[in-house]
Fold Biotin transporter.
Amino acid sequence: MISNRIHQSTSTALFVALFSVSSYITLPIVQIPFTAQSIFIMLSGLILGKNLAVASVMSWLLLGILGLPVFAQGGGGLAILLSPRGGYLIGYILMAYTAGIWPTDLLQQRMSPTIRTTLRTFLLLPSMLSVYIIALPWLRWQIEGGFSFDEVNTLWHSWQKTLFIGFFPFIFTDLVKTIIVAFTYETVLRHKYSHFLSEYN
């Protein structure tokens, strides 16, 4: 029991470190910052399961709130969580949870890697999109200075602006990252570390 808890704590700490390091990995793609954080957050759900993955993300967020430079581009502090980016950071909790809800053996090993990767990509899409459940309302609130129930036209334009700023520009990169996670998990991690993965799922 104690050994298992130590193993879980170590694995959680490892992913907290990966979240922090990956926040510094950015690639400029069509003038949109391509960060690796969501890749490791989805992997944490697949490897650790939903509960430990959520614990890892919340621990990482706590470190950031306390001022450690663990967020994108070395940011840290409560101000970032209260900024337009805050909804995305909090949304990572949902991302980790939804990535970890599927059993690791859901896709049969006898399937070809291509089929498993394709199916895993579809299974992970709700996880990638779940971050926007919190991120978009939060972003709209930041843009408009609060929530309001204005006339339909004004409300529509408000949400239209939010989607064009905080969702549409990221569709392509989100899909790419989802495919990367699915491919990495199904062709490398699941095959080589199946015994390790079974301890958490």
